[in-house]
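Many introductory courses stop at the sequence. We go one step further.
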Amino acid sequence: MALAVSVVVRYRKAVTYGVHALLAALETAGVEHELRLGTTPEETAEHIRASEADRVLVLWSFYSPDAEAMAAELATVRSLSGDRGLHIAGACTPRPSRSRSSTRAGTWRG
């Protein structure tokens, strides 16, 4: 039986808090899941392609100084992985009232 959810994270040292919260929620809900950490766009795409889970969530951090570079990586990963998975981008913003703190990356075309 396949896992219900595969969580693939484009891992960067400063990007851990949201991942921990999501994993705790999945565990609390009793959802079978796995965690895969990709340290490069190519490794991230390989994790997405290799997953046998029913659903693949791909987590990204679009922290303001890195947003442009991460948008380019997102495009690369989507291309290399056959556009598989639900890509979710989160960002820490200096003024949350002026911009949303997260977006579904699939609708963002930087």
